[in-house]
Amino acid sequence: MKKLILWILWVIDIAQPASGDLAHGPAVTAVCLGGVMKRGDTVVDNADSAEGKFQGHYKFELLDRFVFEVLNADAFFHVTAPHNYVASDRLKKYIATSDRVRTFQLDNRSHPLAFGERLRRGHRNKTFLPYLVQGRSPGSPFKNQYLNEQWAECMHAVRAAEQTRGFEYTYVAFARIDLAWQAYHPSLQMLEATKCENSTTVWAVADDDYGGVMDKYFIMQRPGAAIIESFADVLNSFDKLEAVYRIVRAQTSVSASLPWNYERFLLHTLRAAGRCIRYMVPVVGHRRLSVAFGDILHEGGTWEVTPADPYLKMGWCGYLPKYCCGGRRPDFGGDLSCLYNLWRSHGRCRRNRALVQLPRFPGEFVGLSRLNRIETATSERCFLPTAQLRACCHQPHVHLTLRPSKQTIQKWSMSPDDVDPEIASTHESRWHCLSEAPKWIADSRKKPWNLIGAAHCYDLNLL
């Protein structure tokens, strides 16, 4: 069956071939894509990938190669188009020829006043509102709500596709269109091998979680996807969000159940619904860590279920106070009292208190602008170890890891790190650590607070 591409205003409706006509067989995964299409319809540059590895490729092409193919996926694009956006010829050709694209819908969310109004109308009780607005003006609500609404629209399209197919997808993934993938996603077999036995599983990336769960990309079993379909509505209503937090407060400490940001709202919503979360090492995004893990795959490494005696561990976690890991605090993004006390006790933060505006109490962590001021306040980077709390408390910190090739292990063994990540009780272990800022680690050995979970370290003796 030939595909019909119909351009009407901002919508492209794509009539798919019958399932039996697809070369890759019926898709088992639906991938919902949101965000600004212009940022995904761009060529990868050195800022997105080390040494221009994928130079000349478009970000949406890397998505197709590293995600859609691996997951045997149908793609549902529900993205924003600025008024001056013109699709590239490569994108037009991709849409016209790919048998994976099920919907391609462009909206114009360049006027955000309606988003801010919905938040304020649904939150007459302002308990959660500061964490939703994040210090922004009424006309410029936090961009996450755009994405959440696009994913909700996508789920409507997924349901329609399932009715046409006659059966449901097995997995649904949610992704931002502007992310540069550095290497292959874990296979369907890896997901099956790490799924939880008694509850619906969500697989998240162990990076950029900010005291919650990374909301730029995650994948879940199909029964759990209804949560994302209703997530925007939950955030727009105090009553619905309070219902989530009544469940959360019953399961963890007061301070671990405090809201903070959209990543934490997502995590708490998933936990309140009883979802089980598995973690994978990052190979998505332009951060140094994702590029480094991606290189391991490109050098012959393989995805692997984390073994009982893990060879990948977090460094310098011994400096994290034990009470931070008590109960189920890490499951809910970490105890904000723990972060608060670490922050206040750090000498450099105290000396720059006026500049970084230390919160007066644990629940006052609001706004990325404050976090940015902290990171730029001093050369010693007085920052919050938000991503490291869960990783340090849950060792092993990932369920899907990357085993380096023999050649890579041999290369690392010839020159192991001269910095001790203080993981083993003896000094006999040899390590190769991957970090967002390796030079900074070398300069910070006398500042252990800054080093909590600062690196993912391979134990060369266990490889």
From TrEMBL:
It comes from the Eukaryota. GO terms for molecular function: transferase activity. The keyword Signal applies. Keywords: Signal, Transferase. Residues 1-20 form the signal peptide. This is Nucleotide-diphospho-sugar transferase domain-containing protein.
